[in-house]
Design brief:
- The chain is about 55% helix and about 0% strand.
- By secondary structure, it is mainly alpha-helical.
- It has a two-stranded parallel ribbon with strand order 1-2.
- Helix 1 packs across helix 3.
Length: about 180
Amino acid sequence: MSALFPEPTDPDRSGDLDAADRIALGDALLAQFPTETACRSSAFKRAATRHALSVVKAREYVALARWFSPDMRARVFSEVQVSYTVLREAARDYSRSGMPDHQRWDTLRSMIASAASEGRKRVTAHEYRSAIGSKQIPNQASAMPADAVIRQFERPDVWQAVVDHIVADPASRREVLLRLSAP
C-alpha cells in the first residue's frame, strides 16, 4: 500500500493461494455478493472470515474477479505463470504508472506472449512494473524524522495513498484519523 499504511499483516490464508485460486475465490464471493453495497455488508465480512481472509483481501479478490474477463483469464492462467502481484497491478495500477487499463493489459498480454515464445515460465512483478513505467520505491519512512514524515502529507501521492487506504477499508477511517491527530 504505502510506507505509512502497509498492508495489514493479520493472518489469513492468502499466502497459501496462487493467483488463479485467489481469482476463483473472488468469483465465489462475487456470486454471493454481486454489488459494492453487498461487499460492505456484515454477511460479506462473515463470508471473508469463513474463507480465512481479511475483509480487505476478500474485497480485493472480488474486485479483481470482476475485472478479469474469461479471455484475460485464459491468457493469464496459461503456461506462463503470472503472480497475483502482477494481476493486481494490471487491474488496479497500485504503483500509479498512469497508464490506462487497456494499455496495462496489452503490456501484460505482450509479456505473456514473449515469455511463452522464449520458453520462460513466468512474468515477474519487477519486469511488469518496469514495462509499464513504474518502479518500486523503498520504504524510507523509517529513516525519516517525525516532522519529515508529517510533511509527506503535503504530497498529493501520499495523501492519495491515505484516501485509498480508507476507501479499501472504511473501518480504518477512525484509526487513520487518530494517527493524523496524534501529537
